[in-house]
Amino acid sequence: MNKILIIIPAFNESKNLKKILPDLKKKILKVDIIVVSDASSDDTVEVAKLEKVFYVSHPINLGIGGAVQTGMKFAVENNYDIAIQFDGDGQHLASEINTLIRPILNDEADMVIGSRYILDKGYKTPLIRRIGMLFSAWLTSIIVRQKLTDITSGFRAWNKKALSVFSKEYPSNFAGVESNIHGYFCGVRIKEIPCKFEPRQSGKSSINFWRSFYYPFKTIITALGVVLRANSFRKIK
After folding, report:
1. pLDDT score of 51
2. What is the pTM of this model?
């Protein structure tokens, strides 16, 4: 029996968590859940306590990547076989988790990304944001020599090998681009699968118009930085 942890990074997501946590506990049995509150000012931590799941509260905001890495460190320290990122915005579906982890269970991948764009599953993205995502996916695909369609997806799963890499170093911002390239140079096997996403249930996305606009430029700088450091990465076995 694999020991599985669901990591929920959350910044002021208490309204969504009140729906997400009961749904996960009802539909996904025999897994543990940790909510990582990234210096939330609402009652995110109180909701986690009420639902009797693990929780960590950052005193300062570290960004979504920092929150995810905290969950990864918890997974490594407690000897979990698989960790799953399940964002606190209500866009991910508990019913897709078994599909997400299947390639890991079948030893086909060390990291699995749930993609909104492999198949047309009805998810709509604002045009300016979609253009930035397409460019970032194109550039990352060239570097990792593998076609990727949704590198910003927050619906991911990692096995122990991948966790051993990312628990030590994981970017706080632009995690999709940097972690994919970093993982590639460390020998992490990456696989994308089609998954259905829902629109955000409540609250506001951290990706606004201006962040979407400069995202392609940031992608180039980030990707170049990882490539230049590639020789310092240790390949996993």
Report:
1. 97
2. 0.88
